[in-house]
Amino acid sequence: MQGAIDIPIWRLGLAYILFLIIFILARWKSLRLGKDLVHSVVRMSLQLSIMGFFLSYIFKIHLWYVIILIFLVMIFFAIRVIVKRSGIAFRGIYRLLFFSILFGGGGVLIFFILFVVHNQPWYDPRYFIPLAGMVIGNSMNGSALALERFYDDVKKRRREIETFISFGATAEEASSDSFRKAYRSALLPSLTSMTGMGIVFLPGMMTGQILGGSPPMIAIKYQIAIMAAILGSVAMTSYLILILEHKYFFDKYHLPDEQIFGLEKGE
User: Fold this and answer.
1) What are the residues whose beta carbons fall under 8 Å from the beta carbon of 130, sequence distance 6 or more?
2) How far apart (Å, rounded) are the C-alpha atoms in residues 59 and 214?
3) CA dist list (Å): 79 to 14, 106, 132
4) C-alpha to C-alpha distance for 248 and 61, rounded to whole angstroms
5) What does the alpha-carbon distance between residue 43 and residue 33 come to, in Å, rounded to a whole number?
6) What DSSP letter does each residue of the chain carry, written as one string?
7) Best CA proximity match to 81, nearest among 155, 33, 143
8) What are 250's strand-pairing partners?
């Protein structure tokens, strides 16, 4: 089977007509999304173009420490996106997110490469970088949801949580409902996506492999495997974040930290 059909630059430019239509609709209905849309499209185009340029060189690198360094840089940028998207910042948040993504997402990635894909060498950039991108990207989304939902729910239920604590409950026990809501919110997008696969839509990785010439059954096996890795990384990373958040969100008396939640004493 032949590889994917190359798209000339001028035909790729036609795809931007769709962005233009969205921009016109947003302006017509006064959605105030024009600036965000332009910023997103321009940034996406530049980032993907630069990444495509660098990947052609990165795929020629077969030094494990260089690949690991690239992986750590990916985690760093993922953390910055999480903090910016959630709007939550406190002392130690970068350390919390780095530890959670490194051991949650990174642990699942290494297991997946060593025991599922089993490619040699394990740091082959053609496998490691794309798989790391999918795992870290989805872990990033799940982490942002878990962090934001837990923060918002604890802040909203502050009086209720303090009441539980006054009757002898620990911070973990008093905020268990918030934990469950946040954890469910982090997992739900991946679970919903998995439910519709194969019937409602064909996922991106599978479609890309088929367009690249891979037999459908091989593409399907890879897609099932990568979805297991994605859900596993989201579950592990989000769980670690929610567990570690108690250390930062609650003080030594098990009460919600007033500085983190922006509350005055007695509020």
Assistant:
1) none
2) 20
3) 34, 14, 15
4) 40
5) 15
6) ---PPP--HHHHHHHHHHHHHHHHHHHHTT-S-HHHHHHHHHHHHHHHHHHHHHHHHHTT---HHHHHHHHHHHHHHHHHHHHHHH----TTHHHHHHHHIIIIIHHHHHHIIIIII--SSTT-HHHHHHHHHHHHHHHHHHHHHHHHHHHHHHHHTHHHHHHHHHTT--HHHHTHHHHHHHHHHHHHHHHHHHHHBTTTB--HHHHHHHHTT--HHHHHHHHHHHHHHHHHHHHHHHHHHHHHHHHHHB-TTSSBPTTTTT--TT-
7) 143
8) 256
Structure tokens at 18: 């769709």
Residue type, 231: L
In sequence order, which residues have a C-beta less than 8 Å from that of residue 254 and are 6 or more positions away? 165, 169, 170, 171, 174
Kindly give the confidence (pLDDT) of every residue in the chain, 267 residues in length, as a single tens digit, with 9 standing for 90 and above.
456 778 899 999 999 999 999 999 988 988 888 888 999 999 999 989 998 888 888 888 888 999 999 999 999 999 999 998 888 888 889 999 999 999 999 999 999 999 999 888 999 998 999 999 999 999 999 999 999 999 899 888 888 988 888 888 888 888 999 999 999 999 999 998 888 888 777 777 777 788 777 888 888 898 899 999 999 999 999 999 999 887 888 877 777 776 667 544 444
DSSP string across 182-221: HHHHHHHHHHHHHHHBTTTB--HHHHHHHHTT--HHHHHH
